[in-house]
Amino acid sequence: MTQPILSVQNLTMHYATRKGDVSAVDDVSFDVMQGDALGLVGESGCGKSSIANCLLRLLPENARILQGAVRLDGANLTTLPEDQMRAYRWKRIAMVFQAAMNTLDPVYRVGDQIIEALHTHIETMTNAEARERVAELFKIVGLDPALMDRYPHEYSGGMRQRAVIAMALSCNPDVIIADEPTTALDVIVQDKLLREMCNIQKTLGMGMIYISHDIAVIAEVSNRMGVMYAGRLVELADTADIFARPQHPYTYALMSAFPSITGPKRELTTLPGEPPDLLNPPPGCRFHPRCPRATSVCARDVPAFKAMDARHSVACWHPVEG
Amino acid sequence: MLKYIAIRVAQIIFTFFVFLTLIFFLLNAQPGSSLIDQFTDPNMTAEMRQAIAKSFGLDKPLHEQYLIYLGNFLTGNLGVSFSNYPRPVIEIIFERAPRTLILFLSSTTLAFTIGFTMGKILAWRRGKVTEYVATIGGVTLYTIFLPWFGLMMIWFFAFILGWFPLGKFLDPVLWRGAPFNSDVIFGQMLTTASAVVVALFIVYFISRRLDPIRRQPTQIGGALVIGAAVLAVWIPHPAARYALDILHHLILPIATLATVSFAGSMLLTRNSMLETLREDFVMAARAKGLPDNVVRDKHAARNAMLPVVTAFVFGLALAIDGGVVTETIFSWPGMGQTLLQAVSRKDIPLAIGGLIFGGSLALTAHLIADILYAYLDPRIRYS
Ligand SMILES: Nc1ncnc2c1ncn2[C@@H]1O[C@H](COP(=O)(O)OP(=O)(O)OP(=O)(O)O)[C@@H](O)[C@H]1O
Ligand SMILES: [Mg+2]
User: Side by side, which strands form the sheet with A175-179?
Assistant: First the structure.
């Protein structure tokens, strides 16, 4: 098998707050292969954005990476000095932010903001070359290149979103992280953009990590997917496989809440209770207070993230048999 | 953009005439302010008085006087000063206004630059000891009583250390019998300074259009060429020594004014910057791999600057007051001192002239700030 382009190993990150540590990312591991579109799904507050920010190391001051590694080309991004880290940002890992609407600086022309990224990473690029590249990117994301000399406030929401995607593509990154990039848009634009993003990712063959709380979106964009619960990755497999044979009770519950048109009909089950407070997560498996299959071991010991087969891993003491 | 500027200019001109009307009637409504009564100078003959009275139309009712004044004003005639008889007011303004302008412009620019730079650094490196020291120090200086502070500056830097002269615009001993007129030399210095500012801006704007690898060399090269040109003009200049003397006299008053006023910009910038730093585009700028100082200056501070510029303009009116006080403390023969003397001697034409100068300065500053703001914030619609 080929080497992964990005490998996250046992990543653990806390936010220090006055009330104590928020355990936002706990022992998370996954690989992204060339051309992979990895979907990360989970409820709001389960640490999806925190993982994304760890990868680029764009963390607030109270965040501490306690353990683990983010490996790219043999370098460990969690321990790299800041000035070397800069060379990885955007050139190797680019990001389309959750609040993508506000990621453009209001006082500069949109094209110039993309040119700025190009010039930062490719110092010898001339202005003419950079403008040509921006025009090319605008065409890829379906924007009129003439718009590059306009300011962000002259763009509609959908256009801004496209521009932000063009900006993320600008330096040909190995991996693009898209953190719920379409939440602020209306459903039709959202759907259209989603499809286009998938196409772009497939044509350019880069790796992508797509983050969403919406399992339908993940089903559409990803070929592999990870399910997160309360700061932990509980299941990771090929998307089709997860939909066919969910192993973790949480994934199972998610799936059954998602009526599939093609698959066999399942009974809609709703989970009792609330996701835990990450300031004080439950011991053992973090899902056990809500889990219908929980036993005493679940409340005591953290289940290991085990490979069921080569491409399907799950962290559960009592996986659902597929 | 041009239309926007034209409309603003029209508004400003209208405001100016309202202002002119107000000060004309206010000053002439002072008790005992009839101009004729003020001529107590025994050297002045009856004919002189009559000539003046007539030239002002003083025999006519006030509203007619006002119309005549307006007419004269439009031809550039502000009348004759009584306390400096028979010098025309306009001539006195042309002599002294540049001295005030340079004080005012240099100190406010300096104060803004220092305040803005410190403010953005304080916000960027939050919670360090420097933040508390700078904040407390800045507030102390900001609230300090300016006349007292000015005297302390003179006492310490001029009297104790002897680094600077005790005040005034130039050293009379040095200039006695000098083959130059100080106003001419000062005019040349001002021209040089303006040329340098314009040239630096041109270099900056040209360099921004260049390819990135050629930007910095162009900027450094341009600055060096400009510096060399200034030296080439002034070193062989026969009046270089005299110009240096004026420069030497300028430093302490400018430093005093800038010291008491930079804190306003500093605290505002800091607060505005702390808000901007939470914006998503700042995070995006970091994600793009930009160096810290670029994220700070080009993105965070550039956006944080917008409210600071607005507040700065409203502060300009206060800065003019500060200018009057400073000129008095430093015996600086500029418009502030002139206005004070005109008022205390009831020299109404000169007082009106001084107020016109102050008013135009404030209004022009307002106009410039408006244009600057529209330039700085593309979201402003020019309508
Ligand atoms: N700077 C911070 N300080 C303290 N706690 C934080 C901080 N940022 C995030 N958290 C907490 O960390 C947890 C994970 O947050 P994160 O933003 O990663 O969630 P998410 O999965 O992206 O949620 P959403 O779907 O709402 O975007 C949340 O409980 C959140 O409250
Ligand atoms: Mg999030």
Answer: A93-96, A175-179, A207-212, A37-41, A224-229, A232-238, A312-314, A306-309
* Phi and psi at residue B258, to the nearest 5°: -65, -40
Q: For residue B291, which residues of chain A lie inside 8 Å, CB to CB? A: 86, 120
Of A122-136, A205-219, B337-351, give the lowest mean pLDDT range: B337-351
Where is average pLDDT lowest: B78-92, B111-125, B263-277?
A: B78-92
B63 class by beta-carbon count within 10 Å (0-12 exposed, 13-18 middle, 19+ buried)? exposed
**B227-243: pLDDT as tens digits:** 999 999 999 988 888 88
Cα gap A179→A241, rounded to integer Å: 23
Q: Which two tokens stand for residue A185?
A: 């848009």
- Residue B383 within any structural domain of the chain: no
Of A103, A107, A119, the CB nearest to B377: A107
- Same domain flag for B165 and B211: no
User: Same domain, yes or no, for B148 and B284?
Assistant: yes
Q: Residue B280 is nearest to which of A86, A102, A125, comparing CB atoms? A: A102
pLDDT for the residue numbered B38:
56
Give the start-to-end residue ranges of the domains of chain A: 1-34+41-79+213-259+267-322
CATH topology of domain A1-34+41-79+213-259+267-322: Rossmann fold (3.40.50)
Distance from CA of B186 to the nearest CA of A (A): 39
Residue B135 and residue B265 in one domain: yes
Maximal CA-CA distance, chain A:
66
For residues B164 and B190, state if they share a domain.
no
Answer yes or no: do B43 and B160 share one domain: no
Model confidence at B170, pLDDT cuts 50, 70, 90, reads confident
- The yes-or-no verdict on residue A265 having pLDDT over 60 is no
Atom 26 in ligand 1: which residue has the minimum CA distance?
A: A44
Q: How far apart are CA A65 and CA B22, in angstroms?
A: 67
What does the alpha-carbon distance between residue B316 and residue B329 come to, in Å, rounded to a whole number? 20
Residue B57 predicted with pLDDT over 70: no
Query: Residue B234: its pLDDT value, please?
Result: 92
Mean pLDDT within B33-44: 61
- Interface mutation vs chain A, best among B279, B288, B295, most A CBs within 10 Å: B288
Query: Cβ contact (<8 Å) for B291 and A86?
Result: yes
Query: A50 CB under 6 A from ligand 1?
Result: yes
What integer pLDDT is reported at residue B328 of this predicted model?
87
For the Cβ of A3 lying below 6 angstroms from any atom of ligand 1, the answer is no
Residue A63: beta bridge partners?
Answer: A15
Task: Report yes or no: B289 at the A interface, CB cutoff 8 Å.
Answer: yes
- Probe target for ligand 1 pocket from A46, A97, A213, with the most ligand atoms within 8 Å of CB: A46
**Secondary structure class of A271 (helix, strand, coil):** coil
Same domain, B265 and B226: no
Please say if the pLDDT value at position A41 is more than 60.
yes
Q: CB contact, 8 Å: B302 with chain A?
A: yes
Chain A nearest C-alpha distance from B24 (Å)? 44
Q: Are the beta carbons of A90 and B289 separated by less than 8 Å?
A: yes
The ipTM assigned to this model is 0.88
Q: For chain B, what is the domain count? A: 3
Parent domain of B343: 94-180+250-376
Mean of the per-residue pLDDT values of chain B:
86
Whether residue B83 lies inside any domain: the answer is no
Q: Could you tell me the pTM of the whole model?
A: 0.85
Q: Is the pLDDT of residue A48 over 90?
A: yes
**Can you tell me the distance from the alpha carbon of A322 to that of A186, in angstroms, rounded to the nearest whole number?**
37
Residue B382 included in any domain: no
Same domain membership, residue B272 and residue B354: yes
Q: How far is the CA of A50 from the centre of ligand 1 (A)?
A: 6
Closest CA of chain B from A23, distance in Å:
22
Q: Is A273 left (phi over 0), alpha (psi -120 to 50) or beta?
A: left
